[in-house]
């Protein structure tokens, strides 16, 4: 792994990462550095990061509670207050060290504090490396509505250090795999097929799979940075997946899902809709369903869950002119964007998911 040029910023990987960071800091005279972490990345990742950091600039650590439930404007307000109290100015730098919640929220905090200050992202989860590292999306949830408040604003640098993956529990690694599977389904059939039997993957080469996933997302974003066209492909599995994730987050009787767990279910459901619209074959659908279910546990949906999940679709940020917009597969490795889907097809997809 080495270097990828994203839209307006470089992504440095593994052996190049910290040398590039320290060279950047030496060339840019920041008044202070604020490292934003959550409780998990503070404990398990920050010591390694600080040991590789070489700068004379004053450093402050800002921590918030781990988890999607912290990804809200209230957390941002608390961080803005801390930055103000500690004297952050327009020449301060924020470095976000953590998973997708940290980089999404930290990027939003930086992009809005004093009308915007520089930030660097250091994703420490597989999900954040292959998804949040590319594209410049920053933001927070509005209640149980995912990513409703935010901006597109790119970091100065992204650093990928795959040694941080050793700090992750198995379910967090699986969560990241969901986005890698998505990249294959929407862009590269051969890449998708590499994950059909995890026993055949040589995890000594897993860094190359991560790099490939980052490259796929980057290739899409470079063509459409502001998501007016082909970048919408990256939303496959997310229309229903985000609704499921938000519903389980808000419900007092459900166990909160990891992002990748919800997206995995969303991809199966939206693949079923693709089949119902004759965009993929039944054999392709079965391969997708069985391939994903071999990695992810089934989510238990009760009869009374479907209606509130469908209600959440109304608030999906991808909707246009009051119409719910889906990304559907047009054969494995290809997509159709801006597709409308009848509720009956969604209901049938849920029925098949449970079978």
From TrEMBL:
Q: What is an example of a GO molecular function annotated in this UniProt entry?
A: 3-dehydroquinate synthase activity
Q: Give the protein name, as stated in the record.
A: 3-dehydroquinate synthase
Tell me the organism: Flavobacterium noncentrifugens
Biological process per Gene Ontology, one example term: aromatic amino acid family biosynthetic process
Q: What are the leading ranks of the lineage?
A: Bacteria, Pseudomonadati, Bacteroidota, Flavobacteriia, Flavobacteriales
SUPFAM superfamilies this protein is in? Dehydroquinate synthase-like
All copies of the 3-dehydroquinate synthase N-terminal domain together span: 63-174
Top-rank taxon: Bacteria
Q: Which cofactor does it need?
A: NAD(+); Co(2+); Zn(2+)
């Amino acid at each position: 792994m080495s270097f990828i040029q994203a839209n307006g910023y470089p992504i440095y990987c593994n052996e190049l990462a910290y040398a590039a960071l320290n060279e950047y800091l030496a060339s840019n005279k920041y008044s202070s550095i604020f490292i934003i972490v959550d409780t998990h990345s503070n404990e398990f990742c920050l010591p390694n990061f600080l040991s590789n950091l070489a700068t004379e600039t004053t450093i402050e650590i800002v921590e918030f509670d781990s988890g999607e439930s912290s990804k809200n404007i209230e957390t941002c307000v608390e961080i803005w207050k801390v930055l103000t109290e500690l004297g952050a100015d327009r020449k301060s730098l924020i470095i976000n060290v953590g998973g997708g919640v940290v980089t999404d929220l930290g990027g939003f905090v930086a992009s809005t504090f004093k009308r915007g200050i520089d930030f660097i992202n250091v994703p420490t989860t597989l999900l954040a490396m292959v998804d949040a590292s590319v594209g410049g999306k920053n933001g927070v949830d509005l209640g149980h509505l995912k990513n409703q408040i935010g901006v597109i604003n790119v970091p100065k640098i992204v650093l990928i250090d795959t040694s941080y993956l050793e700090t992750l529990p198995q379910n967090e690694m699986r969560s990241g795999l969901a986005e890698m599977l998505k990249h294959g389904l929407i862009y590269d059939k051969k890449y998708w097929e590499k994950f059909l039997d995890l026993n055949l993957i040589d995890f000594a080469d897993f860094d190359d799979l991560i790099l490939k996933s980052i490259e796929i997302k980057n290739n899409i974003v470079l063509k459409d940075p502001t998501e007016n066209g082909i970048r919408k492909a990256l939303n496959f599995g997310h229309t229903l997946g985000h609704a499921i994730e938000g519903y389980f987050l808000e419900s007092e009787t459900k166990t909160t899902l990891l992002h990748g767990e919800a997206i995995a279910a969303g991809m199966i459901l939206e693949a079923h809709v693709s089949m119902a619209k004759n965009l993929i074959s039944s054999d392709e659908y079965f391969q997708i369903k069985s391939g994903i279910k071999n990695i992810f546990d089934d989510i238990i949906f009760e009869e009374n869950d479907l209606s509130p999940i469908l209600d959440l679709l109304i608030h999906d940020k991808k909707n246009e002119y009051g119409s719910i917009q889906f990304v559907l597969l047009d054969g494995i490795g290809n997509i159709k964007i801006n597709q409308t889907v009848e509720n009956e097809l969604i209901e049938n997809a849920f029925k098949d998911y449970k079978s």
